[in-house]
Amino acid sequence: MRALVILAALAVLALPLVAQNGADTKKVDADKLYNEGNTLYRSGDFAGAITKYQGALQLADDYKYRYQLGLAYKNTRKTDDAIAQFEKSVELKPDFAVGHYALGTANLSARSYADAIDHFKMALQYDPSMDRAKTGIAEAYSGEAQRLSDEGQLQAASKLCDEALALHSSNSKLLLIAARVYNKSGDSEKALEAAKSALEYKKRGAKGAEYFELGIAYKRMNDYTNARAAFNEAKKDPTYSRNAQYELDGLKSGIQLRAYGQKDPLSEYKIEGFGMFEAMMNRVREDTVRTLFLVQLAEEENLPQRRQQRFSMTRGAVAAARPEGGQQADQLPRQQTVRRESPKVGRNEPCPCGSGKKYKKCCGAT
Fold first, then answer.
1. Which of 46, 121, 259, 306 would you label with 241, given CA atoms 20 to 30 Å apart?
2. Interhelix angle for 63-75 vs 46-59, to 10°?
3. What pTM did the predictor assign?
4. Residue range 259-274, pLDDT digits in tens
């Protein structure tokens, strides 16, 4: 009887060990499927990778399996499924910074900009050195501001741009969207600053959009000279050439229309003409100063030598201009002076031919 009790106790103790060994075996098999899925993922076989990851999740639930499955779904353009897997991944491991970043990019693709901003911020919270998350936040701010602007919520869009630029003042795309929003909301000074900064921080690609918004800001500030220059720059970008030309045409005919705004067109012409004259004078001054700075002064000891060189060059040019044969000027044949053999006859004097008429009426007639 005592032996049976001991055997029963040993069996009870052995059950957790058997269950643990079974769980370990499932985890090993799940890891194997997970690794096979990674191999297929790297080769570009996303559908095969999804099958392997799903098989691994049937054996064990792991945040890495969920994350990789989300990436595979994202590469097959199944954004909603990708978001679902990324969410489960960060639920299993809340401090998974890469998972939060992936969830932010998926929400950005789905145009869920508010959710994207939240997860990008959480990624930075767990990994402050993740610069790509900072870029993601700026992209999400840009998308949300553009969406609000398109829906006519200009005040909310402008406020969001203020908040975004306070955190990310060097993102060229965000600055461009901000300039566009500020122009629509009538805040030309902010639009001008944003457009200038966008041009400064944009290192590559066409800048037609930035110059176009810059021109709009100048135009609304009645700075037509700079507006015209900005639109001419925007015109170089094929995407904005037609819009820029339309604005330039509007500037040409706009002066006549200013009478509706209680402004004298003649005075407006004078103001713009004076502005153009001032711009021309500034260019002349700049060119003059640039030329003066480029002038090289000759040293005093070299002046006699340079004069001698200039004199030699002049004598050489004169010698080259002489006629062939090397004749001197005084050796050339001189022209003989034509002299009259008879005295000059006046116009009103009798003609020498004996006709009795005046010279001007006879032989002197022309």
1. 259
2. 160
3. 0.53
4. 555 667 677 777 877 8
